[in-house]
Amino acid sequence: MLGKQAILELFEKKDIHNIFHLPGIHTLPLNESFKRHNINVFVGRHESNTAFMADGYARVSGKVGVVIVTPGPGLGNVVSGCMEAYNDDVPMLIIHIDTGRKEIGKGILHELVEPENIFKYFTKKTFSVSNKDDLIPALNDAYQTALSGRKGPVVISVPYTFFEKEVPFRLASSSYPLPGTQNPEPGTTISGIEKALYGKKKPIIIGGKSLMIEGIESNLEEICKGASIPFLTSTSGKGIVNEDNVYAFGNIMQKGIVKDIVASSDLAIAIGTRLRDVDAKRRGVKLKELIHIDIDNQWIGKNYPATVKIAGDIQKALEALGEILKERRFEWDLGGLKIAQQKERKALEKGSPGFRIMRLIRNVIPENTTTVWDLSLPSYWAEYYFPVYQQNTFIMPRGISPIFYALPGGIGAKIGRPDRPCLCICGDGGVLPAISELSTMKKYNIPVVLLVYNNNSFGILEDYMSTTYHIQGSMELTNPDFIKLANAFGIKGKRAKSLNQLKKIFLHDINWDEPFLIEFNYPIFPLPWRV
User: What pLDDT band is residue 146 in, cutting at 50, 70 and 90?
Assistant: First the structure.
């Protein structure tokens, strides 16, 4: 079959029905085929945004986010999205529609020599197809690589000249070895954990993103509730279990009760978390002794020395842990700690605007709402204190921490889980470069609610400049009227200047079935680690 038909056949076999894309002259034969088949192509207004859409889609759906880009500037514009996906283990397939390599050196349109090499250090693998017979096997390998082992992005360059040529359709892998999840040796796993647990009175469990496995909550409840062990998470692990559970205490970086729990523990069992510096050590998290269980050994021992190191199938390791702890019960008073945490949060609500905003938002949105956050003042408070009740409903880009993520990421997240309401929380500094995607929301009728926290500045930087250098106003911004801007795209909007007004908008104006923009004008408030 023709190359363009073979690609669509592969998409069908891989259950790929949603693609994020910005077309160009090189992609037109493929665009023609998309129109004739059951493929949803979401055309964004900038390639950087399409990459973030694919990222958000992948995080909530568990599928590979597929981005198709043109050569030259199209490929260059997905660099930051690829970096984010690589550093946050998000499966993404970036299909680069390449120029004809034989013409390189003659000054052809979008000419670059081996452009996929740009991505060498922040992809799982790059592929370049030079023979039309390898088109489908290479695409198949690229797809499998994105999903295997530690998930992540893959870039594959496909010459546009193959679209109208006959190619064989075969899925047989070429010689590329695919990384896989290691299987821990059961005896070693059990004996190592048993030895580390010997004599311990107050262990804790820390869950990360790789523990975000459907159905895992029952395993964790049996272990944590049964053996009386507090369960904490990294930022990307928020939602592994319902945070209302008596054994669940939220993000490990919190102060107060959580800090006391960590300080008085005598063993940390970290499962499916990288324990990166930015997620734990930099936030003052200190661990006395560690069992570190992850899908591979890439991050084990990087920031904290581990007594026991287990790289492999984390679900099997968790089952082994459950067997060891069946008849044990530790000295934690989970109920008392939960009551103390609730009292602590009531005190925070009285004295901290950031906490009050988090509490308000949580109380006025449905429990299963997907929330997608830029890096802004509200998002840092959300990291610490926003309760999450279901898996993959709290999306924050902590790979490289881009501030332009939430709006396009939210569009992708809503497409990935259309059954869930979707709320994007952006800062005014982060939303404006992505605001053109209001056009995408309107064009495809993607019912995302966008909350723009507007303090007319880069608020976090203004806070630092003010507190560190005693310089005021150096990070101020000149912003448009966001409501009029939304209305210009045919999207409804409303402005709030107080928490009470914000609450009324959520309760009376939002129906979650259409795009909506809320501009929330509110002063800068302290960061959570300053409170």
Answer: very high
What local confidence, expressed as pLDDT, does residue 191 receive? 84
Tens-place pLDDT, residues 503-523: 999 999 999 999 999 999 999
Distance CA 136, CA 457 (A): 49
Q: Do 457 and 439 meet the contact criterion of CB atoms below 8 Å apart?
A: no
The label of the residue with tokens 């084990």 reads: 300
pLDDT band per the 50, 70, 90 thresholds, residue 184: low
Beta bridge pairs of residue 65: 92
Same domain, 127 and 255: no
CA separation for the pair 11, 17 (Å, rounded)? 7
The pLDDT, as a whole number, for residue 107 is 77
pTM (predicted TM-score): 0.94
- Do 500 and 467 fall within a single domain? yes
The count of C-alpha atoms lying within 13 angstroms of the C-alpha of 509, restricted to the half-sphere facing its C-beta, is 19
Instruction: Give me the residues paired with residue 474 across strands.
Output: none
> How far is it, in rounded angstroms, from Cα 191 to Cα 321?
10
Q: How far is CA 439 from CA 46, 80, 89, 363, 491, in A?
A: 11, 22, 29, 30, 9
What is the average per-residue pLDDT within 352-374?
A: 97
d(CA 248, CA 98): 49
Return d(Cα 482, Cα 491) in angstroms, integer. 11
Specify whether 381 is located in the same domain as 410.
yes
Structure tokens at 520: 């929330």
How many Cα atoms sit within 13 Å of 190 on the Cβ side?
10
In a domain, 341, yes or no: no
**For residue 373, what are the β-bridge partners?**
425
Considering its fold, how many domains does the chain have in total?
Answer: 3
Please give the residue range of the domain that contains residue 112: 3-162
User: What are the start-end ranges of the E strands in 84-208?
Assistant: 92-98, 125-128, 153-159, 203-207
Beta-sheet strand order (sheet of 231-233) = 248-251, 231-233, 203-207, 267-271, 290-294, 308-311
Inside any domain, residue 176: no
For residue 375, give both structure tokens.
């890096």
> Hey, what are 432's tokens?
């404006």
Q: How does DSSP assign 296-347, residue by residue?
A: SSSSTTSSS--SEEEES-HHHHHHHHHHHTTT---S--HHHHHHHHHHHHHH
Can you tell me the distance from the alpha carbon of 399 to that of 122, in angstroms, rounded to the nearest whole number? 11
